[in-house]
Task: inverse folding
């Protein structure tokens, strides 16, 4: 049986000694009857909210709320552009415990009615960006939950397994969710301080200069370190404002860019239907199971043909399947020429082959499978020795530079007897030229093939 506002207000005096209550009233928070909640006016002018669990599992959630609010020290609150409730005290109500927190003024906007454009939508995005920018040490110091991307991914996989085991989820949805779970890129995100699945009802607005602005945020029981997308999943129910919320969130975020946060938030939103089904199945509530099945079938119909995971985040198997429906592209020809106006690789290769024929003799070359015999190969003296073109060579004949070489030798000054140092230098120069020649020969041979 629900507790009356007067009963709850009376408990405030136990939580806050030496403070009198001068008024009390019912407060509806949209918690689906999981809490008994009242607002009380104190004699010192303050207004407070007292909450007590109406269901057994709500008691643990209320305890988590108190723990999270204790973690919000004055220094932490200074980092936020909005207010969070202050924990004023705790007290017993019957066999359970109630908490007393400060009252936050403001109004709420249903997700479906959240308007697009500057105002409520952009303020929500900015508020979430500020929340996710809080230092992780706030959560760690209080011993609150910390979930890595790998752990979040494993939890999703187990949830899908449980949902599939009921045999009540459309197969298309199971495959859709499994593809998302298998996409590695989807789970490469930076964990942040989150509230673990808040909704539109968690935001309190006030009009400032005629513009709706988020001035308060409720529902802190899920304070933890985890996936930022969990706090954005409710936007699946806000089709008008979703784009502007995501845009404001991205522009005010100081964390690493997360291009797939929207895809993960959509996945979490869809999995809420699976959780509803499992809740009905676990509690033996046929009415909940029937409702969940209807929602899942409607979801499957609505997302048919729409891929949840972008192609860039597909795993290897999905990528291979994707290739089967991608037109084959003809690769562009690769130009291996030396990019000069006079020579090309095939022509240069013919010069080298002719020089080898001149040095080794035609009979020796005929026995080699490729027209050259490495055991009889001789190194040319210089790069542009005079060569005879092959009779069946149809390429442009190489330039005859022998006359220029002879002219240079004729003009060279006569030199006297060489010294030992000159002989060593000449030998080194000859060896370097032979090495260069051999490397050039290998390049032209491979290029002509």
Result:
């Amino acid at each position: 049986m629900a507790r009356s506002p007067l009963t709850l207000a009376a408990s405030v005096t136990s939580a806050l000694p030496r403070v009198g209550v001068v008024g009390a009233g019912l407060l509806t928070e949209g918690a689906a009857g999981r809490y008994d909640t009242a607002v009380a006016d104190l004699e010192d002018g303050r207004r407070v909210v007292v909450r007590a669990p109406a269901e057994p599992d709500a008691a643990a959630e209320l305890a988590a709320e108190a723990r999270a609010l204790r973690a919000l020290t004055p220094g932490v609150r200074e980092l936020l552009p909005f207010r969070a409730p202050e924990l004023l005290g705790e007290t017993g109500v019957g066999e359970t415990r109630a908490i007393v927190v400060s009252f936050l003024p403001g109004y709420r906007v249903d997700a479906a009615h959240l308007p697009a454009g500057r105002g409520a939508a952009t303020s929500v995005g900015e508020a979430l960006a500020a929340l996710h920018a809080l230092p992780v040490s706030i959560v760690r110091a209080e011993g609150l939950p910390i979930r890595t991307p790998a752990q979040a991914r494993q939890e999703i996989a187990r949830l899908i397994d449980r949902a599939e085991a009921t045999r009540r989820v459309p197969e298309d949805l199971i495959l859709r969710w499994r593809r998302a779970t298998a996409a590695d890129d989807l789970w490469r995100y930076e964990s942040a301080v989150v509230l673990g699945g808040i909704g539109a009802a968690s935001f309190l607005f006030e009009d400032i200069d005629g513009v709706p602005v988020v001035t308060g945020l409720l529902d802190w029981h899920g304070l933890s370190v985890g996936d930022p997308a969990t706090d954005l999943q409710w936007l699946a129910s806000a089709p008008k404002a979703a784009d502007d919320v995501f845009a404001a969130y991205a522009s005010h975020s100081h964390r690493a860019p997360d291009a797939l946060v929207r895809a993960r938030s959509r996945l979490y939103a869809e999995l809420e239907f699976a959780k509803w089904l499992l809740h009905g199945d676990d509690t033996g509530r046929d009415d909940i199971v029937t409702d969940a099945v209807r929602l899942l079938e409607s979801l499957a119909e609505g997302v048919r043909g729409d891929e949840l995971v972008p192609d860039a985040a597909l795993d290897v198997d999905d990528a291979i399947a994707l290739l089967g429906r991608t037109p084959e592209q003809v690769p562009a020809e690769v130009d291996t020429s030396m990019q000069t106006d006079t020579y090309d690789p095939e022509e240069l290769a013919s010069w080298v082959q002719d020089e080898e024929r001149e040095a080794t003799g035609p009979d020796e070359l005929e026995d080699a499978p490729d027209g050259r015999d490495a055991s009889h190969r001789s190194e040319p003296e210089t790069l542009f020795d005079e060569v005879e073109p092959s009779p069946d060579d149809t390429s442009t004949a190489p330039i005859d530079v022998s006359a220029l070489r002879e002219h240079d030798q004729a003009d060279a000054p006569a030199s006297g007897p060489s010294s030992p140092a000159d002989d060593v230098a000449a030998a080194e120069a000859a060896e370097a030229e032979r090495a260069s020649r051999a490397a050039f020969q290998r390049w032209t041979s491979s290029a002509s093939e």
About this structure: Residues 329 and 346 are 28 Å apart (CA to CA). Residues 345-448 form one domain. Residues 318-352, 354-358, 364-416 have pLDDT under 50 and may be disordered.
